Protein: Eukaryotic peptide chain release factor GTP-binding subunit
Amino acid sequence: MDLEAEIRALQLDSADLKDNVQESAPVPVEQQATEDHDQEILLPVHNPAKAKEKAAQENAAKEEAEEEAEANKKRHLNAVFIGHVDAGKSTIGGQILFLSGQVDDRQIQKYEKEAKDKSRESWYMAYIMDTNEEERAKGKTVEVGRAHFETESTRFTLLDAPGHKSYVPNMISGASQADIGVLVISARKGEFETGFEKGGQTREHVQLAKTLGVSKLVVVVNKMDDPTVNWAKERYDEIEQKMVPFLKSSSYNTKKDVIFLPISGLMGVNMDKRMDRNVCPWYSGPSLFEVLDSIEVPPRDNGPFRMPIIDKFKDMGTVVMGKVESGSIKEGDSLIIMPNKEPVKVVAIYCDEDKVKRAGPGENLRVRITGIEDEDILSGFVISSTVKPVPAVTEFVAQLQIIGLPEKAVLTAGYKAILHIHAVVDECEIMELISQIDMETREPIKNKGVRFVKNGAGVVCRIQVTNSICVEKFSDFPQLGRFTLRTEGKTVAVGKVTALSSGVSSSA
Ligand SMILES: Nc1nc2c(ncn2[C@@H]2O[C@H](COP(=O)(O)OP(=O)(O)OP(=O)(O)O)[C@@H](O)[C@H]2O)c(=O)[nH]1
Ligand SMILES: [Mg+2]
Structure:
């Protein structure tokens, strides 16, 4: 495969770049301090008109500086790291932070010692991302880790998903916030095979990522340094050849939206710099950072403001976290939290580690609000514009595709499962099967009733949830209209919301 050609195909042209300039801009603290100081000393207090004029001029200058900072700001992407348990996702995440200078040698030595004390020597790089005690003791990510880093042209929010099958719900939450996926595959003998088997998380994560709107995948074939691999081209080719048909069957366009590359996360090879020919003579393609740099930013939605709440906590008031799915947010905005219609006011906005005045679609934010206590907010609530709030429903109609029922099992009305839709996780019941879907045309077959469906089939059905939840029709707003159904730790079906039932409150 010609990787250079692939990269070119993914390359962003300058017009796209302009369109995607991000809204948020940190306010330089020093600049603010000097301006305030100047004002204090220089204002001619005996002449209020002049003072007013000067303040207005200063405000205009400040706004201009902010606008300039915004215009110069790099584009932003959310990247979720997915793949089977122990593939090396956290190690790669940790290595990225190390290579981008966010972790120094002293900290690495500290992690090395801690990992050794826990008899997990080789996990020291993963400890950068795996921060809690349970994760470090077991060597497994549980909560989605978050970090920020920058390549030449792009700011990234890195979401490090857990690979273990018990934590798939957390992986779903991470992937639902992502624009692109970095699928990590271990090339170590036996490890690729386990992850790729039926029931392995390489498969499940790919299928979920596609359903959750992760439109582009960077497939990193990791652990190429392992003694069982030793940078062998045959092993890399074998993995690529087996993955391509599977990715195609999961609806990824492997020519346009997928790119493969070999790396060693532990050794940091082919990550920030291109491969040393002495290490791997057969690979001359781009490094991981170059690939990430060249991925197109998906179109952002500038409609009414919507930010599904992933998490909330108390910190000098109530702070909510999430990714802005559409619209912009400014300090001082009056918004509404749905579905319980609580009016709130935006006190402060944090993007990465910076406080910003405003932020646009695609950004991963922490927002401090007043008007609501943190205990009155659940994950899956949506902060939304007051003019056009997100609809809240207890029932909707959907197209379902059954992908994980056991061979002899059938799905009928009355089937219960866990619904995952953006940040919502709730029990649901299929109330009615309305019509079968022709899997060739993807269209419902009219006038043909249906009593049950089997694995592989498609069906239009009515779904009810226990609590009121915020959803949108997939055709209006895909991010809030796509979902998965899981039961007993397995993904049973994926679906799209096609209609919101009557009685839906789309106005507050
Ligand atoms: N030889 C080698 N080992 C690696 C590499 N990357 C990761 N590992 C090892 O693989 C093991 C698992 O690494 P993690 O980074 O915790 O894997 P993970 O994908 O985050 O695992 P989960 O969070 O449990 O899904 C550790 O022992 C790492 O040192 C690599 O490039 N080469
Ligand atoms: Mg991990």
